[in-house]
Design brief:
Shape: elongated
Largest sheet: none
Number of helices: 2
Oligomer: single chain
Strand content: under 5%
Distance between the termini: 101 Å
Structural class: mainly alpha
Helix content: 55-70%
């Protein structure tokens, strides 16, 4: 079959289909580029994380397991606690001597109950 003459009615639907196909292909190419960039970022993050985990495992293998005595020695060395196992507080800490504060009722200020159990007389 040889086409000698193409009419507008024959050409337009074919052109329209090809045009929308090219638009959808360009959108897909754009999405593919975004997905590749995201995949690249995730791959590098995963690489860094696995490297960190490998380093932790190697360090644990070389130094052995950590018990409480070793942990306390490391904390004393870093200055987190002193030799008597007391926490070293920052300047301006609100509580002194490790006293815990009791929670108070927001209505009356007493410590034996809270707002939910408070009974108005």
């Amino acid at each position: 079959m040889q086409i000698t003459h193409i009419t507008k009615d024959d050409f337009f639907p074919t052109f329209k289909a090809a045009f929308f196909t090219s638009i959808s292909i360009s959108k897909l190419a754009h999405k593919l580029a975004l997905i590749k960039a995201k995949c690249r970022r995730l791959h590098t993050a995963n690489k860094i994380l696995s490297k960190h985990q490998r380093a932790k495992k190697t360090q644990l293998r070389l130094r052995g397991s950590l018990n409480t005595a070793k942990a306390k020695a490391i904390q004393v060395e870093k200055g987190v606690i002193n030799a008597r196992s007391e926490n070293i507080r920052q300047e301006g800490a609100h509580t002194e001597g490790g006293e815990s504060r009791r929670r108070r009722c927001s209505n009356c200020g007493k410590t034996r109950h809270n707002v939910r159990t408070y009974q108005v007389v």
